[in-house]
Design a protein that fits this description.
mainly alpha, Serine Threonine Protein Phosphatase 5, Tetratricopeptide repeat, 2 domains, two-stranded antiparallel sheet, two-stranded antiparallel ribbon, globular
Length: 505
């Protein structure tokens, strides 16, 4: 069967500034194994391969949060690959031994690859062979992908949105076509967010012009509306969050309390709006020469190979309620007793579709936080009661002690953010939330790294010491530096400040 040319190497030509004049150049090169995309189905396959299936970097942000801890029984060498992320090193492109490992800062090239494909489809999708509704669905998905990618880029490589300074704060480059240039600069944070809003609104408009029914692997108008509310949430535009979630937050949630230990993310769950990221694609194999590494073994259920796991701080938050069903579904204790607990969200216990999901719970939480920020704490309480009743068994008997007793808006915002942490742990949400809440809900993060080894031929671990690292709420390390491979080619792109060296205390 013929396939079209959308390999990673060719997509990287856009990122690395190779001497091509446009995306269509490399797609025009045919041989017996290649075909130029002409139909909606072919364009759709291109988009889904890059943006919805082969999504393998998102888990990395979790390593920098308070949701993750090391396994002290794992050796130093086993944990070194992701030590730079876990200890918030200035140079995240080097492992614990100082060796270059570009996979730890691959978000830039992966997201701009998605943008390249989205741009190509936006430019050409309306000319594809298919019905008008199919073309609308295709191009709507491309706008969704571009909006999603820019929201992630600006929250990794730029400072937090601040309405007072966003127009003059460097964001990330805006690439809205398929041309290649070695010389481009950062758009402002405000300009990037304006583009995100415009793309998602265009996606919603086009989704409304099609009745094509797709699986959960495809985004839809509801998913785009939810993502738009997230963008408004990150900006602190509270009334816009309320408006964007008006309809979504009226729909019923999946009741975890009635389905203990059953997979939540399934095609029949009407709470799930969109699911993406094949768990299988996250095991690409190891090739250090190419900067390709296995995903961190925090997702393994074997204690001897588990290198990182769920933090005690996170687990203690689940324990604040009796029978919090989120804990039973979100995490696994592989060996019982006091052994390390690992995320379950990559396993069949949680999902039978994709690894990441857009679901109605976020609409409830986004809306509740916005209501609290607008000092409408009664409305926030009503929403949170509806949400928590589906997550904590017999919640009505615990509500008085579990929820804030006061009507203070700040206390409610903190409470709601804490619930976001529990609902979306290990889904690439916590790092972005920590960035935006530190101004009014500061978190000082602490990670311990145990130095350990095994003797030749032995499985016994010898502990040689511990290192302690702290990330302060105002640290510049909440912003990633642009990958070195990019700045070597584009010498005019501006850096935003400099990360600091977090030292062992």
């Amino acid at each position: 069967m013929k396939i079209y040319k959308t390999t990673k190497a060719l997509l990287m030509a856009f990122i690395l500034g190779a001497s091509l004049t446009s995306c269509s150049n490399f797609l025009d090169e045919e041989d017996k194994d290649l075909v130029i995309p002409e139909t909606v189905t072919q364009y759709e396959a291109m988009l889904h391969k890059e943006a919805f299936l082969e999504v393998s970097w998102f888990y990395m942000s979790d390593l920098m949060t308070d949701d993750i801890t090391e396994n002290p029984l794992a050796t130093t060498s086993a944990k070194n690959t992701y030590k730079s992320l876990y200890t918030w090193k200035r140079d995240v492109e080097r492992d614990g031994e100082g060796q270059v490992i570009t996979a730890t800062n691959s978000m830039w090239q992966n997201l701009y690859s998605d943008i390249l494909v989205a741009n190509y489809i936006i430019e050409n999708g309306m000319k594809a062979t298919g019905t008008a509704e199919q073309r609308n669905q295709l191009v709507a998905e491309a706008y969704f992908v571009r909006g999603r990618a820019y929201l992630e880029l600006v929250n990794i490589y730029a400072p937090v949105y601040d309405a007072a300074t966003a127009a003059n704060t460097p964001g990330v480059p805006l690439r809205l076509d398929t041309g290649v240039s070695n010389d481009y600069t950062r758009a402002s944070v405000a300009e990037v967010y304006n583009r995100i809003e415009a793309d998602l609104k265009e996606a919603i408009k086009l989704f409304a012009q099609t009745s094509v029914k797709k699986s959960l692997w495809h985004p839809n108008a509801d998913a785009a509306q939810l993502l738009l509310s997230r963008a408004y949430l990150y900006k602190g535009e509270w009334q816009k969050v309320v408006d964007a979630t008006e309809q979504l937050a009226q729909r019923p949630l999946y009741d975890l309390t009635r389905r203990p230990n059953a997979p939540m993310i399934v095609e029949t769950n009407t709470e799930v709006l969109h699911s993406y990221g094949s768990p299988a694609s996250l095991y690409p194999g190891t090739d250090e020469s190419l900067g390709i590494m296995d995903i961190p073994s925090i997702y393994q259920t074997n204690l001897t190979t588990c290198t990182y796991g769920a933090s005690e701080d996170l687990l203690s938050r689940f324990a604040l309620a009796t029978n919090d069903c989120r804990k039973y579904t979100w995490v696994i204790n592989p060996q019982g007793g006091t052994s390390i607990t690992v995320p379950a969200k990559w396993h069949g216990q949680f999902t039978q579709v994709g690894a990441y999901t857009y679901r109605l719970a976020e609409a409830y939480l986004n809306r509740a936080e916005a209501m609290a920020a607008l000092s409408k704490t009664n409305e926030a309480q009503t929403l949170m009661t509806k949400y928590l009743t589906t997550r904590i068994a017999n919640f009505s008997a615990q509500r008085a002690t579990y929820m804030p007793a006061s009507t203070d808006p700040l206390e409610w915002r903190k409470f709601i953010v804490d619930q976001r942490r529990l609902e979306f742990c290990f889904e690439d949400m916590r790092w972005f939330d920590l960035r935006r809440i530190n101004a009014w809900y500061p978190h000082t993060l602490s990670h311990t790294f145990t130095l350990a080894s095994t003797a030749s031929g032995s499985t016994n671990v010898t502990v040689q010491g511990t290192e302690h690292y702290t990330l302060n709420p105002s640290s510049p390390n909440y912003v990633f530096e642009i990958p070195e491979s990019e700045t070597q080619i584009n010498t005019t792109i501006s850096a935003y400040g400099k990360r600091e060296e977090i030292i062992n205390e």
